[in-house]
Design a protein that fits this description.
Blueprint: E1 5-12, E2 22-25, E3 38-43, E4 46-48, H1 54-66, E5 87-95, E6 98-108, E7 113-121, E8 129-130
Antiparallel strand pairs: 1-2, 1-5, 3-4, 5-6, 6-7, 7-8
Length: 132
């Protein structure tokens, strides 16, 4: 049985992540250092890393893999509260020499509101094809 090779996680307007797409490389054998600053909760000029989005990465992975919500956050509250729209998370991976992408979105005008897709392709260079 072949294993799944995790590739990348993409986050946009999900919880503390803003409108720019954040790409997290999952296909590495090295440790990844995640650091952040929460400028929204600065007190007297002191900026802390609490609330900067470290746990949000785990929340995004669990949300896209199985609709698992370990933080008991309402679905409507998953959308970044500053932008209030166009939440997207995506995960790419491969198995048995096929490439897959799972996409989920909420409050997304261009993609039709709320929903998601599973896409597939046979080679890295071809376009994604919809599975569901």
């Amino acid at each position: 049985m072949s294993k799944i090779i995790w590739d990348k996680l993409y986050i946009r307007n999900f919880l503390s992540y803003g409108n720019n797409v954040t790409e997290i490389n999952l296909n590495t054998n090295n440790a990844t250092f995640i650091s952040g600053k929460n400028f929204d909760s600065a007190v007297d000029g002191q900026v802390e890393s609490n609330g900067s989005g470290k746990s949000t990465i785990l929340n995004a992975l669990l949300e896209i893999l199985g609709d698992i919500n370990i933080s008991n956050i309402a679905k409507t509250d998953l959308v970044n509260n500053r932008n209030g729209k166009n939440m997207e998370i995506a995960l790419t991976f491969s198995k048995n020499n096929k490439y897959y992408k799972i996409e989920k979105f909420r409050s997304h005008k261009e993609k039709g509101g709320n929903g998601g897709y599973i896409l597939c392709k046979d080679t890295p260079d071809e376009q994604w094809n919809y599975i569901s």
